[in-house]
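Deliverable D5.2: sample structural annotation.
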Amino acid sequence: MRILFLGDVVSVAGCEFLRKKLPGYKKMQEIDFCIVNGENSAKGNGITPASAEHLLTSGADLITTGNHAFKRPEAERLLEESGLPVIRPVNFHRSAPGRGVYVLEKRGLRLGVANLIGRVSMDQAEDPFDAADRVLAGFAEQGIVNILIDFHAEATSEKRAMGFYVNGRASALIGTHTHVPTADEQILSGGTAYLTDAGMTGVIDSVLGVDIACATKKMRTGLPVRFENAEGDCFMCGAVIETDAAGRAVSIERICVE
């Protein structure tokens, strides 16, 4: 199985670039499933029904999110009622709308996808390690061997620890949230593909997708600044993971398409 995972898509520019590049890239790389983090796909940040629909009609099979999942009020309806393949972190409080796991099926292939959020320097959430145990046990009960986890977290140490924690039980654990691609892709000893952060899909000359002047003013002055999304040339960052019949990763390739 060949899985494409793309890091946080940022605003209109990221969405439009994804639509331009993704279909051809999937065909060229013979991708079976494409997972996209879309928690910042709406203008400004957050996700809306319109931005989710854009990603799905551009070639995403499933959208994961993170700490901005409920930034927009309409996201509650998107996650709870739409029926679209959009998930939020499974270890949000049990009262949160929507779900944190999804099983994709295509041409006789099945891929279990889970979304987790970290707790270091993040808003309060339930223990992601306990949540990972529950998720993996649930997939095992369904006989699903190909499993990808999007771990949306700030601390590289927490992501690294989670990678080793699910080693041998998940096909891949890919980190998101920091919008900066890391150069540490590897296959762990138990056959789990790991990458600390997939990066983002959005404007290259930006501060994590935000206009440079806005971000710099905020950092220099500490005063409230209304962030604006950057404009300009974009890239599409993520990773391609290939698994064998037992769900073990045989390769992981970090990608950046301009």
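Annotation notes: The chain has a mean pLDDT of 96. Residues 2-202+231-257 form a domain with the Purple Acid Phosphatase; chain A, domain 2 fold (CATH 3.60.21.10).
The annotation will be released with the project's public dataset once the embargo ends.
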